[in-house]
Amino acid sequence: EQVVKCLPPPGIANGEHSRPLSDTFAVGALVHYRCKHGFSLIGNKSVRCTAHGVWSHPLPRCEVGCVSPSWEWKSNQIGVPGDIITIECNTADVPKDLHKSQCQPGGTWGPPLLALLHCSKPADIAHGSLSGLAKAFFTPGTAVSYICEPGFSLIGTASIYCTQSGAWSRPPPVCQVVKCLHPPNITNGKLKGNISDTFSYGASVSYSCNPGYSLVGDALISCTASGTWSQPPPQCKEIRCVFPEVQGVKKGIKGNTYRSGTNITLECDDGYTLEGISQIQCQEDFSWDPPVPACKLRVAAAGVLLLLGAGIVWKIISKQKQG
């Protein structure tokens, strides 16, 4: 009995079969076909050697297909004519009829797929960065935001979004170094060091007072990241020394408070002796130099006062006895 066999399977245009070259194939043998890139296989992918010694029909064919876009979930697959691709955009302003496209016999999509369906990674900026997720491309409607490093302020729009045209809505912003304006001047005082019209973030300036004035507040202020000074400037208040109440002391100048540098000559009332230096000066730390002297009651004067006091007491007692 003669064994039935099939001759090699026929080839197909723009495709090939998977079996190795052989002169004959046994009944039941399967051969798989595949198409070249850019073509779609129409029909059954496999044919079988039948008991009649012929291959099952019909053979598949390879027709020009439509390549799925790289950003679609079936990336690089081939669509056959008539296939419809549906694109979901995360923006409401894309017309609905542009969400679908059909594979045409010529291997193109109709209507053409939107070349605007994604934006490339937005540009980097000096002294700043993008906040959010890092991605290779962005779909229309996706927004990104820029932030600047400390000491830099953002010039332009912080947030931009991917438009339908595949471009970003605005150019990226610029991070500009923060500058503080000239610090305020103060009455009866001045700024120390190198002074300019503007100061960079982190720069500090200090104040000092004119002679005869004392600084109230912090002498040092700094330029902050917001372009303002860290605090209001200090004040310079006039130095006034207070003269204490001292028994028996007479001053050469009237008043109770005196400016820095003021000299006062002191003397004692009659019956008192000055203990210390007669001339004192008001200092910038609100003290007197030398210290305010004292006036001590003389011994003779003290005895007179004692006798006077005793006489007054004797008179009071005598009057009480007579009464």
From TrEMBL:
<protein>
    <recommendedName>
        <fullName>Sushi domain-containing protein</fullName>
    </recommendedName>
</protein>
<keyword id="KW-0399">Innate immunity</keyword>
<feature type="domain" description="Sushi">
    <location>
        <begin position="117"/>
        <end position="177"/>
    </location>
</feature>
<keyword id="KW-0180">Complement pathway</keyword>
<feature type="transmembrane region" description="Helical">
    <location>
        <begin position="299"/>
        <end position="317"/>
    </location>
</feature>
<keyword id="KW-0732">Signal</keyword>
<keyword id="KW-0391">Immunity</keyword>
<keyword id="KW-1133">Transmembrane helix</keyword>
<feature type="disulfide bond">
    <location>
        <begin position="148"/>
        <end position="175"/>
    </location>
</feature>
<feature type="domain" description="Sushi">
    <location>
        <begin position="239"/>
        <end position="297"/>
    </location>
</feature>
<feature type="domain" description="Sushi">
    <location>
        <begin position="178"/>
        <end position="238"/>
    </location>
</feature>
<keyword id="KW-0472">Membrane</keyword>
<keyword id="KW-0677">Repeat</keyword>
<dbReference type="Pfam" id="PF00084">
    <property type="entry name" value="Sushi"/>
</dbReference>
<comment type="function">
    <text>This protein recognizes C4b and C3b fragments that condense with cell-surface hydroxyl or amino groups when nascent C4b and C3b are locally generated during C4 and c3 activation. Interaction of daf with cell-associated C4b and C3b polypeptides interferes with their ability to catalyze the conversion of C2 and factor B to enzymatically active C2a and Bb and thereby prevents the formation of C4b2a and C3bBb, the amplification convertases of the complement cascade.</text>
</comment>
<feature type="disulfide bond">
    <location>
        <begin position="35"/>
        <end position="62"/>
    </location>
</feature>
<keyword id="KW-0768">Sushi</keyword>
<keyword id="KW-0325">Glycoprotein</keyword>
<dbReference type="GO" id="GO:0045087">
    <property type="term" value="P:innate immune response"/>
</dbReference>
<feature type="disulfide bond">
    <location>
        <begin position="268"/>
        <end position="295"/>
    </location>
</feature>
<feature type="disulfide bond">
    <location>
        <begin position="209"/>
        <end position="236"/>
    </location>
</feature>
<comment type="similarity">
    <text>Belongs to the receptors of complement activation (RCA) family.</text>
</comment>
<keyword id="KW-0812">Transmembrane</keyword>
<dbReference type="InterPro" id="IPR050350">
    <property type="entry name" value="Compl-Cell_Adhes-Reg"/>
</dbReference>
<feature type="disulfide bond">
    <location>
        <begin position="6"/>
        <end position="49"/>
    </location>
</feature>
<dbReference type="GO" id="GO:0006958">
    <property type="term" value="P:complement activation, classical pathway"/>
</dbReference>
<feature type="disulfide bond">
    <location>
        <begin position="180"/>
        <end position="223"/>
    </location>
</feature>
<feature type="disulfide bond">
    <location>
        <begin position="119"/>
        <end position="162"/>
    </location>
</feature>
<feature type="domain" description="Sushi">
    <location>
        <begin position="4"/>
        <end position="64"/>
    </location>
</feature>
<dbReference type="InterPro" id="IPR035976">
    <property type="entry name" value="Sushi/SCR/CCP_sf"/>
</dbReference>
<keyword id="KW-1015">Disulfide bond</keyword>
<dbReference type="InterPro" id="IPR000436">
    <property type="entry name" value="Sushi_SCR_CCP_dom"/>
</dbReference>
